Amino acid sequence: MYLLLFFPLLVLPALSVLHEERRSIPSSYARSLDPPAPDTPLPSPLRFFLQQSNVHLGPSALLNVSSPSSPFFRKHWTKKQVDAFFAPEPKRAEAVERWLASQGIPQGKIRRSRSGGSVDVHGLSVSEAQSLLNTSYSVYTHQERGTTHLGCTEYHLPEEVAEHVDFVYPTLQFDGHAHKQGVTIPLSARESAMRISGQEPKEKKRGKVGLGVPGSGSLPKQGEQLSTDQLNGGISVCGEFIVPECLQELYNYPAPNLSAPSYPSEHLGIVEYTPQSYLPNDLEMFFGYYLSPGVGERPTLYSIDGGYPQDEYLGFEYQGESSLDLEYAMALSWPEIPMLYQVGDLSGSASFGNFLNALDGSYCGENDPSVDETFPNSYWPYPEDCGTVPQATVISTSYNYNEFDLPVSYMERQCHEYLKLGLEGITVVFSSGDYGVGGNMGMCMDDTTGAMFTPSFPSTCPWVLSVGATQIPYGTTTPFTTPEVACEDVIVSGGGFSNVFSRPGYQDDQVAGWSDNYGPVGLGYDYNTDSMRGYPDISANGAGYVVAADGEFLLLYGTSASAPVIASMLAKINSELASQGNAPIGFINSVIYANPDRVHDIISGSNPGCGTKGFSTTPGWDPVTGMGTLNFEKLLEFYMALG
Questions:
Q1: HEC profile of 150-181
Q2: Mapping DSSP to helix (H, G, I), strand (E, B) and coil, where does residue 56 land?
Q3: Taken in order 314, 380, 170, 143, is the CA torsion positive or negative?
Q4: Domains of the chain with CATH codes
Q5: pTM value surpassing 0.85
Q6: Helical spans, DSSP H, in 180-243
Q7: Which of 71, 388, 472, 515 is the Cys-Cys partner for 519 at CB 3.0 to 4.6 Å?
Q8: pLDDT at 15
Q9: Is 516 annotated among the ligand-binding residues?
Q10: Is 491 annotated among the ligand-binding residues?
Q11: Residue 456: alpha-carbon gap to chain centroid
Q12: Residues designated catalytic
């Protein structure tokens, strides 16, 4: 007689694989010994970002349309073509949804993002998320501010799901702003006056502190205040400070046609992040000296997620960036009036993802809420803008992060978006940073492998044009017979090598040549060279710009100046090309690296930081000033000859 034993049927979990892990946490955070309560709600939906299609083909596609030797040169794609080429296959979302359903997640909690780029699960607790991801969440406390962050150091996915997912949020991401709830807005000049007069302004609080908030690190640096009797010297002042005429002389750039009527530009867009903003009176002051027909003119405003030129918070720390960008962009572009993309409300929390949403609706849903603002919020009670603004053919941004502040997956997704914009014929320009080989505010990195230089993102993305800074040697007179040098006055040109992005093919010859012939040794810090993206690509003057900001004339310093100058020159070329019925430049890096005769090489100066001498300039490309500074006439001649 046999004894029959009956066992309950066990449903074995699918085989899980490690999907992502973090080897260390930011040094500013400490892990709490007490785990979060199991019923603690996640701070946001659990989002499964889906693998896009044809990502591996994107670089070759972009190089095909940006290389003069290619039969597809400047045959840019339409947005519809780009979206269709990279859209995730439906099977990816379906695989994630099937797995979630098999784990008992109610259908009502599962939604696809508007763009179709992610599958989102709403209303989960910590214990439910831990079970799904085979992980353990912890509470991390910022050691200076006492604010808390929920995250984990690794997570797992079933094999049949992992192949469809780029990354999951919230998991390994730490706050890229390095600030959380409860940060007090500094008093504006107006509020200070109220307090002195006995009125008590209502204290305001920000959430995450974003790119435009004073102290973020990427804003320009202030020099001396100028009196009005110093402003009438024309080009004779160029040995002391920079005015628009100096840039015309330096870069063979044409003077504006002051008799031509103004009109809106399709070619130059300047990005600003609230609370950075311009004041109309500052434009009037500047144009009164340097662009008389510009008096009364304003940039064409495109508001994104509640952005507007605020005048509630005043002072250099609020008006310096926008005044610098717009005064010189308008002076160099006249009679064309550039677009102003003003991003984010007075929460000061908007970031690059919010701007990209408004530029490209298909990017909506790709944000990382640890870096980008979520809308609606208490300041802006409307959904985020998705595909709501026109695309300028050249877009200039003078803001940046340190690479190590951001999740790798976030940077990779965003860099791919810049590649897509390049395919559409858009030149994306970013400043390279003001702290040499160090990061914003001179921060340097201690990795598990030792001390490392701190690269700047998005400049390290291979699909943007990264712009460093030069300066005129003090006391130089015109005509300029002494070449510019790397900027080391007040700011130091940002440059080096990415820790995330591989070196693109268009850089191979120049960067390999630098590494073989000039690569420094014995700096005491680690840095990547042989196989990683080097930056900047190009440079322009970044020292001592005369700017009207909050009612005063000041000298400003930074790659914040270099980027809009380069962007203005490229937009002018696009305007000339358009007048002949020709396509815009688009992604220009390939042309810059292959045509060194179109630039002025910079061979003097360095970019010290992290307690080291940094890198030195050399003949050809170097990680201080890139390929050098543009010769506008020669570059225009090159493109006009191509048609």
A1: EECCEEEEEHHHHCCEEEEECCCCCCCCCCCC
A2: helix
A3: positive
A4: 16-52+88-169 (no CATH), 211-642 (3.40.50.200)
A5: yes
A6: 189-196
A7: 515
A8: 66
A9: no
A10: no
A11: 9
A12: 321, 325, 560
